[in-house]
Amino acid sequence: MTTRRRFLGVAAATIAAAKVGEPAWAAETRNGIPYRTLGRTGEKVSLVGLGGYHLGRTGLSAEDGIRIVRKAMDEGINFLDNCWDYNDGESEVRMGNALRNGYRQKAFLMTKIDGRDKATANNQINQSLQRLQTDHVDLLQFHEVIRDNDPDRIFASGGALEAALQAQKEGKCRYIGFTGHKSPEVHIKMLDTAAKHKFRFDAVQMPLNVMDAHFNSFEAKVIPVLLAQNIGVLGMKPMGDPYILQSKTVTAVECLQYCMNLPTSVVITGCDSLKILQQALDVARGFSPMTKAQVAGLLAKTVQAAQSGQYELYKTSHHFDGTYQNPQWLG
Fold first, then answer.
1. CA 225 vs CA 8, 120, 219, 255, 290: distances in Å
2. Cβ distance 292 to 9 under 8 Å?
3. Nearest 5 degrees, angle CA 207-CA 191-CA 284?
4. Do strands 33-37 and 232-236 pair parallel, antiparallel, or not at all (unpaired)?
5. Can you tell me the distance from the alpha carbon of 223 to that of 220, in angstroms, rounded to the nearest whole number?
6. Strand 108-113 versus strand 232-236 pairing type
7. What is the pTM of this model?
8. C-alpha span between 329 and 51 (Å, rounded)
9. How far apart are CA 132 and CA 308, in angstroms?
10. CA-CA 20 to 30 A from 302: which of 79, 159, 197, 257?
11. Where are the beta strands (DSSP E) in the chain?
12. What was the pLDDT predicted at 82?
């Protein structure tokens, strides 16, 4: 198949997927930010979600991290992303401080755990709640489902799912999902394993961007399955964090627009300054569904650069694999 035929085929699939998600384009707006429905949960979540990792970076002061969270929420964002292992817990600590003074009640709060066995997962859940200064998270997700044996470990007797279900029963979490950035096939295995155990996730998080569309694509392989099961689609790494921008093929605004054009409930993006946050807010407020020509144009600009995965290091290396560097987090 020629390169041109390949990207035109991806463009057609993208448009078709987006059409399935059209009812969620703008269920409502808050302060100009579109809100979409999170799968079958019925929850309304902001089109842009605030990534938690960047909030704990050493180059960003704790005060500025708190300021970014509160500014985001004041401007209409309610979806907050975090993880037990981000910056040795500092990301959760800063977010917890930001959620004081009534902000927790405005947030749809999500965090992730690495533990694959019940005891490890339960310990991480409790640590996260303590750092976030809350008695519950709205969405709890299994983090970095990137290995072929991760689904089996999580669903095994004494596995992490038991901890999540116990937490849900005790009111420590409302919904359950999982995340991963390595392989669409592992995502599919996780969903199949869940089905075998008569369990259905509420949300699934994955990289969705203009490079993913061409290379080992979550968009092509996973989104249709999620839509068929009415599971919330959480997009992350719209700019490849930030390697796609280094390809000089597309702008940050185009990256955000592309991911928003998919049937995503939320596009999670990292913001380590008020300027970057404002950019995400502006794109969300100005978003309208892209035309077929606009989608095809972006895919045409990125098709060559995407072929080897060099701008999606989370798929092709261990650069983003925190649990590879720290296997003890898995338990």
1. 22, 30, 10, 23, 23
2. no
3. 35
4. unpaired
5. 6
6. unpaired
7. 0.93
8. 21
9. 39
10. 79
11. 28-30, 33-37, 44-46, 48-50, 79-80, 108-113, 137-142, 173-179, 203-207, 232-236, 266-269
12. 98
Q: Which residue reads 């649990």 in tokens? A: 323
Whether the predicted pLDDT of 3 surpasses 60? no
Tell me the residue type at 196. Answer: K
- Report how far apart the first and last C-alpha atoms of the chain are (Å, whole number): 45
What are the two backbone dihedrals, phi and then psi, of residue 80, each rounded to the nearest 5 degrees? -115, 125
- Rounded to 5°, angle at Cα 282 from 258 and 35: 70
User: Which residue shows structure tokens 């390697």?
Assistant: 243
Look up residue 185 and give its two tokens: 């096939």
Whole-angstrom Cα distance, residue 212 to residue 98?
Answer: 33
Determine the distance from the C-alpha atom of residue 193 to the mean position of all C-alpha atoms in its chain, rounded to a whole number: 21
Per residue in 237-295, pLDDT (tens digit) is: 999 999 999 999 999 999 999 999 999 999 999 999 999 999 999 999 999 999 999 99
- Residue-wise pLDDT for 169-194, tens only, equals 999 999 999 999 999 999 999 999 99
